[in-house]
Amino acid sequence: TRSTRPQRLLGAVQKNATRGDPCSVIQAIDHFCRNKEWAMNVGDEKGCILDAVVSEVNPATVLELGTYCGYSTVRIARLLPPDAKLITLEFNPDFAAIARQVIAWAGLEEKVQLVEGASGDWIPRMKEQFGVKTFDLVFLDHWKDRYLPDTKLMEECGILRKGSVLLADNVICPGTPDYLEFVRNSPRYESQYFKSHLEYTKVEDGLEKSVFLG
Ligand SMILES: O=C(NCCNC(=O)c1cc(-c2ccc(F)cc2)cc(O)c1O)c1cc(O)ncn1
Ligand SMILES: [Mg+2]
To answer: Could you read off the pLDDT of 4-28 as tens digits, one per residue?
Structure first.
C-alpha cells in the first residue's frame, strides 16, 4: 500500500540528514516540506522564534503537546543543556512511531521522552509518572481545541510555576480563539504575540508566548 506522508518525511531525513546532527535533520525536513510535500511542522520561520524563546528560557524541563513527526522536538532538544528533559505527548501512534525515528536520527533520544496518549489523560500524571514537579516551558502544538482545556488542567495539576512560559503554535491558522482570549485577558498571564506565517506558506500565523504569573 502507498506510504504515508510522515513515512516519506522520515525517508527524506534518512536520505539527506547526517545521523547525530540535529541541524541537518531540521534542514532535511524543511527542504522536503518546501519542495516536495507540505506538512504541519512548526517550520523554519516560526522555528526561529521558537529557538529564541527556548534560548531565553533555558529550560531544565520542557513539555511539548503534539509531537507529530518530531520536528519541533528536535528543534527544542538540540538547544537544551545536557541534564535537561523534554517530555513530548502524541496521541496518534503512527505519528509517534515516525517521531521516535526522527528524534533517534538526530541523536537526541537521551533528552527526549515521547509519551503516546491523550494530553488530558497524561497531564494529571506528570508528577507521579515522570518525577517532574513543574515545567519551565510548555510548547502547545496539538489539537487546537485542546489548548485551553489543557492549560486550565495544567494550572489545576500544579505543573506550572510562577514564571513558566507557554508558547502556542497556530494561534491564527488554524486558530485557537478561545485560548487566545483566555491568556490575553487573564490576570494570571502576561501574553505576547509573535507575528509570522503558517509553515512553508505566505498565510499569516503566529506564536503566542504567555508567562504564568502564579
Ligand atoms: O492532527 C493532529 N495533531 C496535529 C495538531 N496540529 C495541527 O492540527 C496543525 C494543523 C495545521 C494546519 C494549518 C493549515 C491547514 F490548512 C491545515 C493544517 C498547522 C499546524 O502547525 C498544526 O500544528 C492529531 C491527529 C490525531 O489523530 N491525534 C492527535 N493529533
Ligand atoms: Mg503547529
So the answer is: 999 999 999 999 999 999 999 999 9
Query: Which ligand 1 atom is at minimum distance from the Cα of 143?
Result: 5
Alpha carbon distance 196, 205 (integer Å): 5
CB atoms < 10 A from the CB of 183, how many?
24
What is the value of ipTM here, to two decimals? 0.97
Query: For the stretch 92-101, what's the b/e string if a residue is b when 16 or more beta carbons lie within 10 angstroms of its beta carbon?
Result: eeebbbbbbb
Pocket test for ligand 1, best of 91, 143, 146, 205 (most atoms within 8 A of CB): 143
Assigned C-alpha cell, 68: 507529530
C-alpha closest to that of 185 among 161, 164, 210, 163: 210
d(CA 114, CA 73): 9
**What DSSP line would sit under 167-200, residue for residue?**
EES-IIIII-HHHHHHHHH-TTEEEEEEEEESTT
List the catalytic residues.
Answer: 141, 144, 169-170, 199
Which residues contact ligand 1 via a Cβ below 6 A? Answer: 40, 66, 68, 91-92, 141-143, 169-170, 173-174, 198-199
Residue among 139, 148, 152, 144 at smallest CA distance from 112: 139
Residue nearest to atom 22 of ligand 1 (CA): 40
Q: What is the pTM of this model?
A: 0.98
The pLDDT value given to residue 1: 86
